[in-house]
Structures are given as structure tokens and as C-alpha cells.
Amino acid sequence: MRSTAYTHINRLLILSVYKIVYKWAVIHRVIHNLFRANICSLYKDCSRKGKMSLNKYKDELPPEELAIHEFWMKEAIAEARKAESLGEVPIGAVIVRHGEIIGRGYNLRETTLDSTAHAEMVAIRQASIALNSWRLLDCQLYVTLEPCPMCAGAMVQARLPLTIYGTADPKAGCAGTLMNLLEEPRFNHRTGIIQDVLREECAELLTSFFRRLRRKPKL
């Protein structure tokens, strides 16, 4: 009798463990599929001339979509910290396609003495090599600071469907602050925009960097 009872208890324990493992496996699969979802499909009309503006703020997004954008923006922030470690202005970017990063970049203008070595440009070049194509279709670009005129132009030329940035640039921002080159209706391609994703974290990177720079003794 005791042996039968133990066997019954063991079966119940095994069944309970199986249910827990199965439940977490299902949750993992849902999360995995969510992150691999092609967000660009939500903005598939943004590249067609004459369509309505798809310039959005983070507060306009559903929570599940915002969570995805915040996840990838944290990767861009990690790239920005690499620039900071080199004494560069901390700006970082990543390009995502079907839930995978295919291009990374951080500001290298001072290090390389190259005025075009912005984070977005570095990431675009890397992504183009990964895809063996200059057309970055079905891709999203995440960058910690609003793109400048050069980078915004490169995004249009690369046919990027969607750009997500962290904090606005009041001095050179061309994704809605000073002008909006990404959604210029006279161009033959337009890029959707999502603003202010992890804005506080992205802004603090820049604020703290320039604060430390001002405190440095002048030689």
C-alpha cells in the first residue's frame, strides 16, 4: 500500500513539474515570436509617397510593441557607451531585421577623424554588408539621438522603413525637430518614425558626458 501511495505521489509530482515546464515553454515561445515579429509590417505603407505621416510618440504605442522597441533601444544604448569609453559623444545605433541585429554602430568621428562616422552610418554600412544589399528593406534602425541631416538622408537612401530614436536633437535633428527629412513628401521613399523611446536614459547619456567635459581643466 505504501509503495502504491509513493508511486501515486511521484506521478503527481512528475505531472506537476511537466505542467510547469510546459507552461514556461509556451511563454518562452510567445515572447520569442513577439520579438521576432516584423514590426515593419505595421508601417508597410510608410515608404509610399503620399501616404499619411507615421511619426509616432512612444505613448501612442500599445504596451507590447513599446516593450520590443525598448528592448532594442537598450542595445543601441550599449553601443553608445562604447563611444563614451573612447571619449566620443555617446551615440549608438543598431539595425534589426526579423528579430535579429544585423548592424551595430557607435560614434567614431573623433577616433577615425571622419565626419561621416556617425553611429547610424556605421550601422547602415554593417547591415548592408550583412545583407549584401544597399536596400535595408524589412529593417528597423534604433538610435539614441535623433538623426542629423546626413544620417536621415542615408536612411532614406537605404530604403529603411522605420526609424526609432531616443531623444530629440534641438541643434541638428532632422526627424521632426528642425525638419523632417524622413517623411519629406517630395522624396520617392519615406521612413516611419517613432520618437522618445527610453528618452530619459538616452538624454542622460549625453547630459552627463558634456557635464564631465565642461568640468575638465583646460590645458
Write a compact overview of the structure shown.
Residues 67-194 form the CMP/dCMP-type deaminase domain. With 219 residues, the chain is an alpha/beta fold.
Describe it for me?
Residues 67-194 form the CMP/dCMP-type deaminase domain. Belongs to the cytidine and deoxycytidylate deaminase family. ADAT2 subfamily. Helix 2 (63-85) packs parallel to helix 6. The chain has a six-stranded mixed beta sheet with strand order 1-6-5-4-2-3. The model is unreliable at 45-52 (pLDDT under 50). The protein is globular and about 65 Å long. By secondary structure, the protein is of the alpha/beta class. Strand 4, helix 5 (149-157) and strand 5 (162-167) form a beta-alpha-beta unit. The chain folds into two domains: 1-52; 54-215, Cytidine Deaminase, domain 2, CATH 3.40.140. It has six helices and six strands, in the order αβαββααβαββα.
